[in-house]
Amino acid sequence: MPTFITLLRWTDQGIRNVKESPARADAAKKLFRSVGAELKELYLVTGRYDLVAILEAPTGEALMRGVLALGSFGNVRTETLTAFTEEEYRKIIATLP
Fold first, then answer.
1. How far is CA 6 from CA 41, 45, 69, 72, 83, in A?
2. Which of 52, 68, 77, 83 could form a disulfide with 43 if both were Cys (CB 3.0 to 4.6 A apart)?
3. How far is CA 73 from the centre of its chain?
4. 59: domain range?
5. Could you give the number of structural domains in the chain?
């Protein structure tokens, strides 16, 4: 299943209610499961972003349904990256002209 990395920043609303963040993370796991995706790991990070999520989904469309629904609650803004394993990376490089 494809892997995606989502970088998250709390909105003003999200940081104002940061103590609710663990419950929101649990709700996000359920949300992603409801669209056929899985939130595999969640990291609190320092720097430009507040959280990093590692997700798996059968398609980019399935993942985006979860990410858009998550964003619609108003607690986070997201940036999502498609991730390729080392094996996939090597295959891509090997097929370059």
1. 11, 12, 14, 15, 10
2. 52
3. 15
4. 3-94
5. 1
